[in-house]
Amino acid sequence: MLFFSVQQFHPQDNLYVTYNGNPIATVNRAEYSLPLLGVPTLNTKKYTDFLTYLEEQVYEESKDAKIDKTGEIVKEQVGVKLDRYKFTKLFYSRFFGKGDFIEVPVERIYPRVDSELLSTIRVKKIGQYVTHFNSSNKERSTNIVLSAAAIDSHVLFQNETFSFNKIVGKRTAARGYQPAPEIIRGELIEGIGGGICQTSSTLFNAVDLAGVEIIKRYSHSKRVGYVPPGRDATVSWYGPDFLFKNTYNQPILIRAKVHGGTLIVTVYSSEDINYTPRKITPKKEKKDH
To answer: How does strand 14-19 pair with strand 101-103?
Structure first.
C-alpha cells in the first residue's frame, strides 16, 4: 500500500480513463482508496486488477507481413500494449492530485517480419520438395491444408530454430483438424490431425535440400508412401517434434502450397545468402528374400 499527501484528495470524485479520446473506464476514488489512520491509501489489489482490465481493453496484437495466395505481400501491422509504467505515474498524480481524465499511454509492438524484409528474402530459391496425396480423402486433405497454411510465409532468422509443433500448434477439432489415419507405434489408427506428417516430411526434405542444420527428426515406425524410405519426419503434439536451425547469414522464407493432391514446400532467401545445398541420396529399400 502506498501513502500520499491528502491536501488535494477528493474521494467523492470520479477519474475518467480514455483511449484515443474515447472513454473506456471510470475510477471512483472512494472505491479505490483505503482510509488508514486518516491517510488515504491506494487499494493496490483493486488497482492491479484494474491494470489487467486496461491491458485487455488496449492490447492489439502485431501481425507479420505475409504473402497471400496470389503472391502479393500483405503489409505488416504494428500492435500496441498498455505502458504500465507511464500509466501508473499518471494515475498516482491524478488520483491523489488534480485532474479528472487520464489518456492511456501505450507502447508499440513491432512485428518480426515487415514487407521490406519479405521482398528481399523471396528472391532466391534454395530448396524445394513436392509430395502427393489422395485429395478425395477429405479429412486427411483438410489436415494437410491446415498445417501447410500454418507454416506458409514463416520467416526463420539467423540462428533461430524452427519447431514444427510450436509453429503449427496443437491439432484440435476446434481448430478445424479432422480425424484421419495416423501411424502410432507401428499401428495405423484414427486420430485428430492424421496426415500432418506429410506436411512435416515435405518440409524436412525441402529444408534438408537447402542445407539447413537438422536438430531433431524422427522417422515413422512404419513405412510411409509419400516419401522415399528414411526421408520422413513424424510429429505428434505430445510426442516427436521436427526441429531445424538456420545457420546461414540471411533469414530464410518457407512457402507451402497445396494444389489439388500436391503439396509443395519451397525455401527462399535473399541473393546475399551464403549457403551450401545438400545432395540427398535416398536409402535403398530392403527387399524380402
So the answer is: parallel
Determine the 3-state secondary structure of 33 from DSSP.
strand
E strands, the chain, in order:
14-19, 22-28, 33-36, 39-42, 66-67, 73-74, 79-82, 101-103, 106-109, 124-132, 154-156, 161-163, 179-184, 187-192, 213-216, 243-245, 252-259, 262-269
Q: How many angstroms separate the CA atoms of 177 and 170, rounded?
A: 10
Phi, psi of 57 (to 5 degrees): -70, -35
Do the Cβ atoms of 167 and 151 come closer than 8 Å? yes
Side-chain-side CA neighbours of 273 within 13 Å: the count stands at 28
In the chain, the percentage of residues whose pLDDT exceeds 90 is: 70
3-state secondary structure of 118: helix
Helix (H, G, I), strand (E, B) or coil at 254: strand
Kindly list the distances between the CA atom of residue 42 and the CA atoms of 1, 35, 47, 83, 289, in Å, as whole numbers in the listed order.
6, 9, 8, 20, 83
Domains of the chain: 14-111 (3.10.20.800), 116-269 (no CATH)
Contact predicate 252/267, CB 8 Å: yes
Residues of the chain short of pLDDT 50, as ranges, are 1-11, 187-188, 287-289
What's the whole-model pTM score?
0.81
- 17's torsion region: left (phi>0), alpha (psi -120 to 50) or beta? beta
DSSP state string for 160-211? -EEEHHHHH----GGGT--EEEEEETTEEEEEETTTHHHHHHHHHHHHHHTT
Query: By three-state DSSP, how is residue 15 classified?
Result: strand
CB 258 within 8 A of CB 140: no
DSSP label of 66: E
